[in-house]
Every structure is written in C-alpha cells, then in structure tokens.
Amino acid sequence: MSSAAIQIGTRWKAITPVALAVLLVQGCASTPVGSAPVPQDPYESWNRSVFSFNESLDANVIKPVATGYKYAVPATFRQGLTNFYNNFIDLWSTVNSALQGKLGNAGSDGLRVVANTTVGILGLFDVATDMGIKKYPEDFGQTLGAWGVGAGPYMVWPIIGPSTMRDSFGLPLDLMVTPGFLLLDDFGWRLAASSLQIVNTRANLLKVGDLLDDAVLDKYTFVRDAHLQRRLSLVNDGNVPESKPAPDATP
Question: The pTM is what?
Fold first, then answer.
C-alpha cells in the first residue's frame, strides 16, 4: 500500500483528501498494468525513488500501527471518526463546487454538512447519506483543472504521495481543510489529531492494500496510471475526452 495518506513532521498538520482518494483507487482499479496509455512521467527516476521511500515508511511504521489500532478500537468508534473527517471533506467540496460554478453540487454538499453537523452530532453520524443527499467530492486541484489549468507532469512527493504539477499547487489548500488545522491552534494537538486521522484512515484500507500487493507486478506503474486516469475523470466529471491519435497513426 502506498503511504499517500501519510503526513509526518510539520506536514502532519493535515491529511489530503486527494491522497485518500488515491488509496481507494489503488484497491478498486482493475485495469491490467500497461493497458492504458502511458502518462507523461518525465521525472520517473525521482518519482520511483520517492515511491519506494513512501512504501517503506508505510510498511515499517504506518501499517503496523494501523493494524494494532484496528484490533484495539471498536468499529463503531472508527466509523464515527471517519464520518467526522468526511464532513470536512464535504465542506471543502462545497467551496470548490461553488468556485467551479456547480451550484447544484455545492448546494447538495452544503446540505450534507448542515445535516451531518446538526442531526449527525458534529458529523459523527452520516445522516445525510441515509436521507439520500448526494455528495460530489471536489478539491482545489479539480477546481484548477475546471479553470483550464493542465495537469502537467506526474509527481510523487515524499509522505504525500502521487500528484501532478497542477494538483501540487492545490495541495496546500486541500491540506488545510482538516479538523486538526481548522479546529486547533497548538502544534502538538494538531500533530496528535492528524496522527489519529492518518492511523484511522490507514486502518480502513488494510484489506485494500493487501489486495493491491497481490494483484500487480509493478505497483509504481499501476498506481501512476490509476491515479492519472482517476484525476482526469474527476476533473471532467466522468466525461473523459478521447485521446487524439498520433499524426502517423493508422486510422
């Protein structure tokens, strides 16, 4: 499992929703390695080195802690924390949908935040889903893409994980919209809150990571292709434009 959801050191102030999405797509994507067009990866040597570092960090630190946490903490408590964190993601989605002019989506996510914050007791219970209120995940990288900014080269950052040049500019804002950053002023408490979020998120994805380890030969290539395809789909709301054939390609 990639350590894309991990934030340590001074970066532990927050967790990026983008990274969590990457972890999910790693487990859900079933496209064979190499079947998709090879994305632009001019910094592959750097990216592979950072990817290996993140994998090692996850295998030796994060995954063992998350495994112990999962067995020690009741599922109900873990689900409540997950709902609490997701409520902040819905809040950020509301802002980004509005910035993209998707007022209907913004209204739906905003209604989710109101319902879960009030009836759901500060977001601990996801009553909005039970009420049939849809969610439309959006982050600032998607907003930049909607504004016409190209994805740019694929990048893998230490601790943060897979990204693109465009999404990297959006990461600082994405990283700030988390409970630890918004609700706490003291760095120590922010560190503790964000560490708990990391471990809780990783615990939810233990089985997903094991499936990925068994399913692919070149994990780096798989994660890269899956991430870029998913981001392209998200920016275009699922309407992925057809790639143009090369000038010398046979029709």
Answer: 0.76
